[in-house]
Amino acid sequence: MKRNRPIFLKINLVILILLIPAVILYTYFSRTSFEVIDKQMSEYNESQLLFLKSQIESNAERLSFSSSVLARDSSILDLQRSLLTKDYYGMIDFQTQVKEKLYLQSFSSNWTNSLSVYLPDIATRISTNPNDSYNESDLDAADNGKWRFQPGNAGETPYYQLFIWDPYFSKNGSLTVNAVFEVRFGLDNIRKMLQHYKLESPGNSFLLTSSGRVISNSAAGDAGYEAAGVVLMKEGLSETGHRSMKMDGQQAYVSYVWLPGLDAWLIDYVPLNVFHAPIIESRNLFYISMLALIILGFAASWLLYLHVQKPISFIIKGLKHFEMGDYSYRIGKRFHNEFDYMLQRFNDMGKEIQHLIQNVYEEQNRSRLATLKQLQSQINPHFLYNCLSFIAGCAKVGHTDTIKEMAYHLGGYYRYTTRVENQMPLLKEEADLVRHYLQIYSYRLERIDFNIDIPSDLMDEPVMRLILQPVVENAVMHGIEPTPGRGTVLVTGHRESGWTVLRIEDSGGGMTGPEIEAYMRRLNQPMDEHTGCGLWNVHQRLKQRFGDGAGISIEPSKRLSGLCVALRWKSERRDDDAAAIAS
Q1: For the chain, which residues make up each domain, given as ranges?
Q2: Residue 566 contacts residue 553 (beta carbons within 8 Å)
Q3: Residue 94 predicted with pLDDT over 80
Q4: Of all residues in the chain, what percent carry a pLDDT higher than 70?
Q5: Confidence at residue 582, expressed as pLDDT on a 0 to 100 scale
Q6: How many angstroms separate the Cα of 381 from the Cα of each of 148, 432, 515?
Q7: What does pTM read for this prediction?
Q8: Exposed e or buried b for every residue in 282-304, given b needs 16+ CB within 10 A?
Q9: Could you tell me the fold of the domain covering 358-582?
């Protein structure tokens, strides 16, 4: 993303900040709805399972009570009496009556069943099923008063079986066994109840015995639940409970309850999507709506960026160009909205500012040139009169050689100062001007020593015109002349981190620290009658051209007794020029 699009990003961020909490809250409410539905579903399934459990147990108990009824029936008592009296004819008659009573008792139950009476004394079994026979091993393996699941053999379907001894505690005891009553019911009874239960429940249910056998609402469906039965048995089942697991290839909510009479668990499961589907559908619709809102929000922010922020960014770009001094920059983009008028006015403003800046810059250049010419006019007449007076004196005494040298240096001096067309001469020309000036003064005062030690690589540096001579003149007039005895002027130069530095040192009386500070303050203020023209002009010219850091600095000289005035400006020589000079 470009740097000129922070508002666009912020708007998109605000859209996300507004919509994301709504999505989070809706997700929380949706999850809470799932939890409430799951809780209500578990309570409903539990109540339904408990009701189905009570029906199954009541039917099983009703069948078990039939043995108690038969034990008190007169036909059973008469049959038992005939066995004791060995009345074989009466025994046959009473067996017929007992069989009729068994049929009547069997038909009175809601479940299809099979009732039998075992007579161990005569090894006889009376049953409602003609195919049943007396088998002593069945009695030995049976538990008294407890339902047992029998898987059946190859020709027999599975069933539940119950044996009750009469007397009840006669099995494995000292009491004589009068009879053993057997009650059977087939799995079809349970399957019918499960089918009826399925009509009122959205899921499916089955019976899981403690041995791992599955009994569903149809014999063909038992195999489909065997894998689930194995998983449940492996995880362990308590008397009642709930859990979530995969059934029929989908996640389901499973509830179960323990049937102690049948030694089995009654299990019901409901696919979660049956109850969760409406909530999931509304949740997905909400998420799609939120996504559509986010896309529309991004589209709106993009339109806002194109028609508002982008024109503003062009204006900001233009202001930055103006800030860097490029007043020729114009905005050529059109947006076909209200900003076109603003951009047109911006271009007009830039045109006017550029025109004004050019006029002011030209006026400043003219002012600087006038100041330079004024400085030259202040220097030249006074200096010329003194030199001519010196030449006249030498002529009177016949010092022709001195006159010749004086004329040579004076000519070189004025040849340079009167040429104003080149405002950026080389430092070598400025140094030659200073050499002419100091040599002329050494003839006049005859007590000035000077040394110009500037590296050769600095001599070809372009510099501003007349920045070195006024400083040297200031050192001679205010440092050397007022001090008795011989005086020395040193001119040195060097480079310092991209800056060119020239130092002019003299052996004059110097200045104190407070005097130096006061003089530096005057150099940075507008010129008045108390401020010298030469140093102030040099200092201001350097500052105006090269900015902060350039100009004049004054400190006590470390090698001589006077002052050290340093000129500092940035080098303007190009790298290719420097390489050519070095080669």
Answers
A1: 59-184, 358-582
A2: yes
A3: no
A4: 89
A5: 43
A6: 142, 20, 30
A7: 0.48
A8: ebeebeeeeeeebeebeeebeee
A9: Heat Shock Protein 90 (3.30.565)
Calpha distance 117→410 (Å, rounded): 159
CB 157 within 8 Å of CB 187: yes
Identify the bridge partners of residue 502 per DSSP, sorted by sequence position. Answer: 493, 567
Lookup: tokens for 62:
């009703």
pLDDT for the residue numbered 227: 83
Q: What is the largest CA-CA distance in the chain?
A: 196
DSSP 444-486: HHS-EEEEEE--HHHHT-B--TTSSHHHHHHHIIIIITTSSS-
pLDDT attached to residue 363: 59
Burial of 239 (0-12, 13-18, 19+ CB in 10 A): exposed
DSSP category for residue 177: P
Q: Which long-range contacts (CB under 8 A, 24 or more apart) does 339-345 make?
A: 339/307, 339/308, 339/311, 339/312, 342/311, 342/315, 343/311, 343/314, 343/315
- Written as one string, the DSSP assignment of 372-436 is HHHHHHHHHHHHHHHHHHHHHHHHHHT-HHHHHHHHHHHHHHHHHHT--S-SS-BHHHHHHHHHH
- Which two three-digit tokens encode residue 573? 């020589």
Q: What is the mean pLDDT of residues 137-151?
A: 83
* Range 376-382 contact pairs with CB under 8 angstroms and sequence separation of 24 or more: 376/417, 376/418, 376/420, 376/466, 378/533, 379/417, 379/469, 379/470, 379/473, 380/414, 380/417
Asked if 183 contacts 132 with a C-beta cutoff of 8 angstroms, the reply is no
Distance between CA 59 and CA 115 in Å, rounded? 15
In this predicted structure, the answer to whether residue 447 has a pLDDT above a threshold of 50 is yes
pLDDT exceeds 50 at position 578? no
The Cα–Cα gap between 458 and 447 comes to 29
Q: Which of 363, 372, 408 minimizes the C-alpha distance to 387?
A: 408
Terminal CA-to-CA distance of the chain, rounded, Å?
48
Helices 6-71 and 88-107, packing angle to 10 deg = 150
Tokens of 279: 């909530």
Instruction: Compute, in degrees rounded to 10, the torsion defined by CA atoms 314, 318, 321, 326.
Output: 140
Give residue-wise pLDDT tens across range 315-357: 888 888 877 877 788 887 777 777 778 888 888 888 888 778 7
CA atoms within 13 A on the CB side of 287: 9
Tell me the angle at which helices 6-71 and 187-200 cross, rounded to the nearest 10 degrees. 140
